[in-house]
Amino acid sequence: MRVLFRKSYKQDIRLFRDRTQAFWYLLFLCIALAAPLFLDGYFLDELSFVYIYAIAGLGLMILTGFSGQVSFGQAAFVAIGAYAHTILLSRYGVPWILSLPLAALITGLVGLAIGRICGRMHGLYLAIATLSIAIVTERLIGGGGDFTGGHRGLPVPGIDIFGIAIDQSWKTYLLNLALFVGAILMTRNLLRTRSGRALIAIRDSEVSARSLGTNVAFYKAYAFFLSAVFAGLAGGLLAHAFYYITPETFGMGESIRLLLMIVVGGIGTIYGAIFGAFFIVLLPTVLSWVKVLLPGAIATSGGFDSLAFGMILLGFILFEPDGLYGRWVKIHHYFNVFPMYKRRSFQRQKTFLKTERLK
Amino acid sequence: MSWLEVENVSLAFGGLKAVDNLSFSVEPGKVFTIIGPNGAGKSTVFNLICRIYDPLEGDIRFGGESLLGARPHEVINHGIARTFQNIELFEHASLLDNLLIGRFRHGRFSPLSELFFLPGQLRQELEHRRKAEEVIEFLDLEGYRHARVADLPYGVRKKTEMARALVASPEILLLDEPSSGLTTEETDDTAFVIEDIREDLGITVVMIEHDMKLVNKVSDKVLAINEGRFLATGSASEVQDDPDVQAAYLGGEAA
Lengths: 359, 255
Prior knowledge:
A: mainly alpha; B: alpha/beta
């Protein structure tokens, strides 16, 4: 068992806890950078999807996991980002390098407006409000006529950065990886500074967050803004990955999938968004391997994928509400204290009752 | 010189008069205690000072300036920090993070600097941490720094809430029942802590308290209220000897 000796306040502020942790993260980064050398195009594209979904997931994590506002509307923001980016590129000829941040910013501003309106709502009401935003956005894009391409959709131009065409799997892979790492760092920075702590304060107790000086409505809207910026960024990248976008690509189902993604990954942690993205993108691939082993009648029936997904989700909610990350922490702890592991280590007992809470 | 002044304040919830034409004033550098039976409106007074409720009439002033123009999150900028009767901590964060949130008013909203962690941020974070460590040492919380608040025992949680209010470096600290739910030893400890807050940190304390031993030990001035109305004020023993106060607690006619 490794004991962490703290000798400086900076140790708690730095990105990595100690050298061992820094070593592992850098090793992972090197493997990810070197992946094009040993993986073929199919897997690189799959990993690109993982990175893009993880960016959208990090955005949703900021909103739902950290500021505590449940949103069924994340796919709407992804859609706005994807359409803004595609329209800026193809219709206005904006260079890619400007178009992507612009699209993210436009999405962010839409998010800010929605956050201003929805910030007063809690729980179920907020869930329904954001759900309706997902539906309305899909309809609006579908009814947008020639501007959005309507239900026929829009073709997405290729990526071109300062004259360099990003046209092969390994190139888009590296581009997505870079933005993914950037998104993680930004989320991490948010969490170790004032605004991030304000979001967590609002999630856990609005009344005391307010008594300590947090303008709750402002920071709730800020969480919506950041979440939408991340979603817009993911949308822009997703548009390129699909080559062709239609409003149905970003329907309500996609919103629900994104929310389930962070639940399965482990809500309230950065890892959760990343683990969840791996789960959601790689699950169909894994299922297709499993199907080979199953009798034909089951494997070819229509709802098999949805059924499997639903069962796995149910399993998580019943047996591991902390998600994949929670499971990982337990496994890690098991080996750390081997052979002294107790299940009770992770059982939370209610030491007191919360009554008369001010809302 | 009076400093925090509550003047003819009234508040009603529907037909229930929670606070009825109440006036009192707190002097700097003193421990001011509000006592009263259950439902007397003690916590409501705190919520009025903290702008959670709007008084129907009357005025609340701090250092000569009316607080009624402030929004709830701006009250702390006047130097007023508080704790809650039923602990309102940030449960899923560590004790240290709770204290760092307490430093909220000593920073500015600077999104780009935060998201890119520009060099100024590190300097600020270290400054916040130093202040948090001072309070951790002051309240003997060293061993719990990195523990999740939800896992801490009740007495420590209570202290953590006090610590979170203290890192905001307030001028006046409102403590809502600092000893409720604590053991006798912890209550004794709380008495010393409150004395130290006044003596060493120079922070004025306004507290709501039921434990008369604690009240006698630390209060400079006591105010008794019942059903939102003023009953008596003075030193702890004066107030306890007041016939109206005895009647309010024991019922029946005053002797």
